[in-house]
Amino acid sequence: MFSALKAALKNESSRASVQANVLAGITVGVIALPLSMALAIASGVPPQHGLYTAIIAGIVIALSGGSKVNISGPTAAFVVVLLPIVQQYGIGGLLVSGFMAGIILVLLGLARLGRLIEIVPYPVIVGFTAGIGVVIATFQIKDFLGLHIPSLEGHFIEKLSLIIQSLPTLDWQETLIGTLTLGVLLLWPRLQSRIPAHLVALLAGSVIAWLLGQLGDDFSVATIGSRFHYQLNDITGSGIPPLLPSFEWPWNLADGDGNRIGFSFALVNTLMASAITIAILGALESLLCAVVADGMSGKKHNPNDELIGQGIGNMVAPLFGGIPATAAIARTAANIRAGGSSPLSSVVHGLFILVSILALAPLLSYIPMASMAALLLIVAWNMSEARHFIRTLKIAPRDDILTLLTCFLLTVLFDMTIAVGVGMGLAAMLFIRRSIRLTEYTRLESDRLSELALPSQISIYDINGPLFFGSAQKALKNITAITPEVRVVILDMSEVTLVDMSAIVAMESIVANLAANNVGLVISNLQPRIILKLRRAGVRTRPGHIRFARDLNEAINKAKQML
Q1: Full-prediction pTM beyond 0.70?
Q2: Is the dihedral of CA 211, 214, 218, 224 positive or negative?
Q3: Angle of helix 197-214 relative to helix 15-42, nearest 10 degrees?
Q4: Beta strand pairing status for 546-549 and 520-524?
Q5: Which of 239, 271, 317, 469 is least surrounded, with the fewest CB atoms within 10 Å of its CB?
Q6: Domain spans, the chain
Q7: Rounded distance, CA 444 to CA 450, Å?
Q8: How far apart are CA 368 and CA 202, in angstroms?
Q9: What architecture (CATH level 2) is domain 440-562?
Q10: What does the DSSP 8-state code read for residue 194?
Q11: pLDDT tens, 309-321?
Q12: 236 near 401, Cβ under 8 Å?
């Protein structure tokens, strides 16, 4: 644990390094401030919860994780998971799910599964991200066009149908602000300015919204201040409360019906599927981000420590109103480009957002919802990785294409809980299927036997590759189907690197079958540790029936002795 912090304290403590990381943290804080609010809104919760997430999770994960440059906070990957939880269980249910996901992430890290999660197939990841991008973009149409829709509920097709039916209610003021914001977001980067595009775009959208508001109520547009409210000491305020995040047990908060959810085993059981989905997505996103960051920074992360850090952050954040968090590739890349090289930059980024809440909360309330929708449209486009999606469809093997489309369609049409379960299952099936193909079974032909001066009563089988539950039956099932004149079978297993319980059972079946037909067996070139496994299972040397040999020549001599 805390490997990134330890490495940073050892190697990144010079004055120049501290200054570079402070400046990088401020730069990332400017980027994360509106993004955190937008992603919280997209997840169905007030914007301050996204800011609390960036503050608490951003600092805690940086200090306890395994990557020196990852920037954690709310991310687009979680939106399609969190929104249904909020709609059904409220903010309280969401925070409890995040807390449970944190526990799962810590357990994954302690079980040292970081490397395993890193090797999830590329089509599975692209299917998830493309599906998430489509869903996020679709949900932003409502605010981008100012459509009069009380609430978007139901599955994707139902929501899309409702959006299409509501197109005649388009509000030109909202559309104007959304289009202007989107245009600035697309065109500003071409100027190669060091000022972030989204900062200029949101400022332009806010100014236009304020000017329209001066023309009268008929020209006013929805803003963070008009959409969200908070209550403080019996006084209701608009927008974001200018307060520090406060501690509260998440199960003391309200569910979707406004009732205190309480803590019970029934609650844990109900939210377990959602928590597992959040944990898997968080693990995939954070480790993928860490791999990308390693390539950009030249540093190395510890995947197991990173999972533990992500888990701790997701356990602490809900206690202060934070929603689930993970490492964000866009913010991490900005951190590296700005000179960030240690967890200090992430800590400064969190403190910058904290100061912004206290000092700028009234100003943040003027940001239009249409501008936030435009910002999320750009996030959704970047999330979708459309070019990678199309390229995979063009050049990938058929199995990968089917996996990609399955994960994509399940993410869009159903929900991430189903998509993650099926996607991880497909990943396992692909791995097993391709591993099976690595195991080859070959019987030496008669001309090769004559070269070895072997009598026809001896048959040699060459087995190459791992013998596990997927390949054992394939490799071993035909060995017992021998001709009547064969009296001894030699198994050359020099290339066998793994034997699991299924292979041991298959081997026992072969031994029993050959013994019943009075056929001897010589096992050659098997690694000592695998021989030990077989002996523990009862497959031992038996004169006239089973022998072990160190190489093929010794096996042939022993086979001749058994005739």
Answers
A1: yes
A2: positive
A3: 50
A4: parallel
A5: 469
A6: 440-562
A7: 10
A8: 8
A9: 2-Layer Sandwich (3.30)
A10: S
A11: 999 999 999 999 9
A12: no
